[in-house]
Amino acid sequence: MPQIAQLTADNWYLASQLFWLLVVFAGIYVVIGRGMLPKIEATVDARDRKVADDLAAAKAAHAAADALEESYRQQGDASRAAAQKAVSDAKDKAAKDAEKRLAKVDAELGEKLAAAEADVSAARSSAMAEIESVAAEAASELVARLSGVKVAAADAKSAVKAVLHG
Amino acid sequence: MAAESGKIDPMHQFEVTPLGGGFNLGGHEVLFTNSALWMVIAAVVLGLFMWGGMRRQLVPGRWQAAVEGFTGFISNMMMANIGTEGRKYTPYVFSLFMFILFCNLLGMLPLGVLGLHPFTVTSHIAITGVLALLSFSIVLVVGFWRHGLHFFSLFVPHGTPLPMIPFIAVIEFISFMIRPFSLGLRLFVAMTAGHVLLKVLSGFVINGFNAENAVIGSVVSLLSFTLMIGISALELLVAGIQAYVFALLTSLYINDAVNLH
Fold this sequence. Notes:
Strand content of chain B: 5-15%
Radius of gyration of chain B: 22 Å
Shape of chain A: rod-shaped
Radius of gyration of chain A: 64 Å
Helix content of chain A: over 70%
Oligomer: heterodimer
Largest sheet of chain A: none
């Protein structure tokens, strides 16, 4: 068995085996174990970190989107409430304004009505006075034509007044 | 494969033959042998394999994924067995695992068909023994470096009753000292046994076809050949498992040195 023989007898190839094993294994350790392996592990680590970072970023973005949506909703609610308040305020104000204007217009109309009524009564009384004087003239003229008696204007007037006012 | 006059020597495959390039090193003649050649081939193939995985892309291709699978396998093993401190020893255990794995697998190549002679480096106890001693020395150096004489508490497990300590310590010490031998022997025996078995069966195949009784000989040959196919598959599995076992035990022993019990 050559494997055992090299250990027992003073064999020529034991030294060669050990020498080349140490040379080759040292080469593998230095070049591959120390040189290539850390780079490959660094690549794997970088990838793992990238994946973890991306996942964290995605989670953060998700949370931010949720917060944004929440604030958007709150803003919407607030602005809707503000709009409703503005509308009701405007309604109240408009109603009050209308009331005020209505009252003012009412008062003006009342004044105008009163003035008009006063005018009407004044016109009526002046018309009445005119009618009286016209009737008195007419009556005195009639009397003069019919009887030739001149009636004093004041008498005619009082007579007409008595007839007109009963 | 000394098929002289129909006789096949299953041990011939383990023979070391000089290929030249000798020089003297401390009174020993060092020659470049077929064993050294296959170590170099394993190192070169391993280097090419690793080089293909060095593209460092964010999304790995097939080759890079394969290489990262191996590195991840070993670094996860170190992480699981030793913890974060295990990263320091990953280069050594990875080199060990890949070297043994590639030597095991290259020794299985059916290059005999082309007239070449694949030599299984790990079927020599001189090789596996040195690798085991290397692991064992790392354990000793790390253990005494980190814990000083406290490292001897390794031989007294926690909770040992006081009167049992002398016996337990002796048993633990023996089991500790036996580690490099069991580590080296396991790989050597598995590789040697597998290759001897394959060679014996292939001898059956050849001798069966050359037998005087052609019918029985053919039956024997075909059965042996079928068996060889199965055992070749098994040997590929063993090649991976033995490399894994060697690396796993090394990591467990380093864990003893780093964390004690």
